[in-house]
Amino acid sequence: MLDFITIVYLVYSFIALYFLFLFIMIYLKNKDKFFTVPKLTKEYSLSIVVPCYNEEESIGGTIEALLNSDYRNLRKIIVVDDCSTDNSYEIIKKYATKYSRVIAVQTPRNSGKASGAKNYGARFVTTELIGFVDADSYPEKHAIRNMIGFFDDPKIAAVTSTVLAKNRYNFIEKLQAIEYKIITFSRKLLGFVDAIYVTPGPLAIYRKKLFDKVGCFDETNMTEDIEITWNFVSHGYKIAMSTLSRVYTVAPDKFKMWYKQRIRWNVGGIQTINKYKSNFMKAGMLGVFILPFFVMSWVIGVVGILFLAYRIIRQAIIYYFSTFYASQAQTAILTLRDINLTPTVLFFFGMALLVLGTAFTLVALSYTKEKGFKKQGIFSFFVYSFVYLLAYPIILVNSAFKYITKTHKW
Hints:
alpha/beta, Spore Coat Polysaccharide Biosynthesis Protein SpsA, Chain A, 8 strands, globular
């Protein structure tokens, strides 16, 4: 009879393999459509809102990247300073003086969150489309133009982009560069089944009338870009992704900053799950796929790390006591009869997950070739696959604790 731990592991393996095979099947069916974008038939009027707080080192480059866009109907670049304490607003005003398309505005008081500055900037937008770009992000010249054609479909509420790491100097930055590429690949796959669950801040464009209809960004949520995406989908609208639209964003360069960012992402995710939990397993992609997928991804991560910890601790305890009593009895610690080379079902599932997961990662990286950046080294790939990813379940547990105890902050 199977023990409880074995049953848990088998269920865990089944769910993990199910999602892996699902992604593989989606990829095989749509691999020729990965970089396809709709033909530009109409140049919708567009305004871009850039929320800014203490970004004096990057805000100028972000504005210049937007000014360099080859989308001709980008009418306004509204840069919203959230009462910065550095020289950000002075820099913004200089650009506004020099370029008629750049508009410098400042919130009446510091909102303390990107969503507050975004919603404030949205008040000044009268165009058909509204886009948002983080103050430390740099869209490529063709990025915006390659996103616009998707809006010919009236059911499309938002279009997201390929977000890549700009800075890759120290080790944690290099690991994030790998992570961003895999996230991009996975998000595009989800797009093929209308299951994109986030429109990230570095570059996203929304249909303005629908943005207003759903009530703009939720300023109580720590991940407003996840919440508004679920809001759109809950109303029956769809999200698209333009893989050719690349934006380079500044990734955290220190472990503390990285950890704080990931905590915020996951607490915001829990907030969003709690807000839309009534949709679970109901009609529509939010209830029947996005919400279950989101929850099960976290369950897989947490259960996986707990199972690994259990196996390591258990083996350590067994080894300690067997060594201790063997030395006391002056008997052999290990004999040939103790060596079992017959693979178990658990070993088979573990190896299947390892091989398929590694193959998925390699394929994802191969789909994001870049000029001007070095390829990921084998050591970085190894650390990402077998060390970096193990940190996520720990972050999830800590995020859940902070959410329950209400100790999370922006």
